[in-house]
Specification:
With about 325 residues, this protein is of the alpha/beta class. The chain has 13 helices and 11 strands.
Length: about 325
């Protein structure tokens, strides 16, 4: 007789959330998990998986994310994860370098999604969602500050760099504890940017090379470094925020060790169009990028909301244990 897989499925009751004065973030996330409700429960599941992942001493842990959130205060959450050495490898986009560095030297500002973009253009202000980035806070300041740093690195005599190497060299020359790149360099956490030319940081590298033809960024050296990290790993895990090249490079490399053991994905993308960004973690199982017995969850929602909730809950629980 075929076993009825649904025979004992309804066993955990849904619990109502309460409005409790003084409730901690960790208590709130736990209540969200017990509520059983849609994305609220997924936030709780993600916190539980990440606690296990960060506590697993055998796991090499990846963090991937897109640049856009680094223009916001969510940069502080990422910075704290790096400062506390909660991850071993970062894979991101060139814009992350742009925003992280630019915000060391200049401010970004509050704006609105409905502002007149033509008017902003005529005032020399770029709009990133509801964040305002004046020209002097982005391209101009990066050109002013980065070229002298690159010249200093070049003067050491080294001519060929992987992206992680050039990013580390820049990070070592910073003196600002708000910076992700600063803490990554200080804590020897490699930062890989497979699309290094797709942003202002990459443009400065290209401009410098116009007068220094022996200056080379070797992308294949990055791949060798990643191979040296992935192949010996007993286990691996990843917190992936958003999609695109940073997400794919993370799961792509982990397929070479038969997939991630832990995977948490935060996304706003839809899967109906077949996009990599919209693909749920379960799809990666079919490619061998996530193990079929892995602990994984996809959390739908804006990462500027979900990530602070999840990581504050994770940190509180790990501290208590």
């Amino acid at each position: 007789m075929k076993e009825d897989m649904y025979e004992n499925v309804a066993t955990v009751p849904v619990e109502d959330m309460a409005l409790n004065e003084g409730m901690t973030v960790a208590e709130l996330v736990e209540a969200m998990y017990r509520s059983g409700g849609f994305t609220a429960k997924k936030v709780g599941v993600a916190a539980d998986i990440l606690r296990r992942m960060f506590s697993d001493e055998e796991s090499v842990n990846f963090l991937s994310f897109p640049a856009c959130i680094i223009s916001t205060g969510t940069r502080g959450i990422i910075k704290e994860m790096v400062r506390r050495r909660m991850v071993d490898v970062i894979i991101t986009t060139c814009g992350t370098l742009d925003h992280d560095l630019a915000r060391i030297w200049k401010d970004y500002y509050h704006g609105d999604f409905l502002m007149d973009d033509a008017e902003l253009y005529h005032h020399g202000v770029n709009r990133l969602g509801n964040i305002l980035v004046p020209n002097e806070s982005y391209g101009l300041i990066l050109e002013e500050k980065l070229i002298p740093i690159i010249e200093e690195i070049y003067a050491t005599g080294k001519r060929t760099f992987s992206t992680s190497e050039i990013i580390r060299e820049v990070g070592l020359r910073l003196n600002d504890e708000s910076s992700i790149i600063y803490w990554a360099a200080k804590n020897d956490i490699p930062v890989y940017v497979p699309g290094i030319t797709d942003g202002a940081f990459g443009s400065q590298l290209w401009m410098f090379r116009q007068d220094h033809r022996d200056f080379v960024i070797d992308l294949l050296k990055d791949e060798q470094e990643l191979a040296d990290i992935v192949f010996p790993a007993k286990k691996s895990g990843a917190l992936m925020i958003g999609g695109g090249i940073s997400k794919h490079h993370t799961i792509w490399w982990n397929q070479f060790r038969d997939g991630l053991d832990y995977a948490v994905y935060l996304t706003t993308a839809e899967e109906y169009d077949g996009s990599l960004s919209g693909a749920r973690v379960r799809e990666a199982v079919s490619w061998g990028k996530v193990r079929e017995n892995a602990r994984y969850v996809t959390v739908e929602g804006d990462a500027t909301i979900t990530l602070p909730l999840i990581m504050n809950a994770v940190l509180a629980e790990m501290k208590n244990k």
